[in-house]
Predict the 3D structure of the following.
Amino acid sequence: MNAKFNRLVIAAYRLPFKFENIEGKLNVIQNSGGLVSAVLALSENFKRHRSEGDECKIAWAGISEDLPENITPRDLYNEHFDIIPVHIAQETNKLYYGGFCNDLIWPLFHYFPAYSVFNQDYFEAYKVANQAFCDELVKIIRPGDFVWVHDYQLMLLPQMLRQQIPDATIGFFLHIPFPSFEVFRLLPRPWREALINGILGADMVGFHTNDYVQHFVKSVKRTSGCECRQNVIYNHGRFVKADAFPIGIDYEKFHDACMSSVAKEEKLKIKELINDQKLIFSVDRLDYSKGLLFRLKGFETFLEKYRHWHGKVVFNMVVVPSRDTIEKYKEMKKEIESVVGRINGKYSTLAWRPIVYQYKSLNFHEMVALYDMSDVGLITPLRDGMNLVAKEYVACQIDNEGVLIISEMAGAAAELNEAITINPADCNEMSNAILTALEMPTTEK
């Protein structure tokens, strides 16, 4: 990142903080997500290059459901961040976030157009919400700031900011896939034009993989008519660069955690529970893009084809609760539980249950212990922007050298090319990959 910037200004849908009211005083507690860690590291780089006396706190704009509406940035103190709360009316937010973002953009950009809901009220709310972010940001942006807008909830924001502050330096990063133009063009023409023009308000547009960059550039050509040479877009006298910036993980955090005393205790518990059985592990949010039912079918095919593995392997499938108040997700959860029950009913013995299914969140040390103790990491989404679980799994291979099986539809597959790559919808290929991973010699692992 260029050293000339004095301050980083982040715009993301959610603030990475929890707020607690203790004896009338608002306490700000920072979340420990990957984005926060990455941003703090970037802030340290800014600090090294700043002039004496420059303000170098990161400004972060976002919404928080547990903040009262009359709260101002002055009421919120945090050591590293200036917190800019954005207030969006509940009904608008329902149409904007629950509607346009999660009922249209999420399924469409993950190649599930049949799940997409096209509703004009959704788009109107999306515009209102993006304008609310813009209104708050223009109050605090000053010369020398680098403004970094994140994800599909704020695709109109870069252009809104550009109109208000023409010489601002703006970056935009999309954390989900950008689909091919044949899928993107399913959006009504005014909507797709607004989204493309909104993103083109940025100076730099980032994606996880080069495929997403090429899909975006083609959509720009077909939607806006802007001239594009390689990954540079000529937009009314301005240059916009689109490029791939694959998001990573804090490798040391995961690798070192495997050797902590807490993780070692967890690993001993796992070892006692599985005895001499091989362990296959997967963890995902409850979402149709994760291919959970296909994964179960692939494991069932493995059990059908390779009966000599009966009693010798356990598949621990962890599904993290997400959006389970939505009808589609409720139905998916019931179907997953039904398929798990059917497979266990068909193959279990008194001494062996092939699938251990958990619908829960794991704590950090439980997770790294399971990563380390599993012989196979089965990460097979039907579509995923990146999938950091795959990278976390690799970082945690210390005591037990496991093998990663990854979907070719995950962004991480482009980087982790020594993993076993499969088509997640092909249950025969998945079952054969499981066999290969379980029987692979240690030297090849």
Remarks:
- Residues 120-140 form the longest helix (21 residues).
- The chain is about 40% helix and 20% strand.
- The chain has a mean pLDDT of 91.
- The first strand starts at residue 7 and ends at 14.
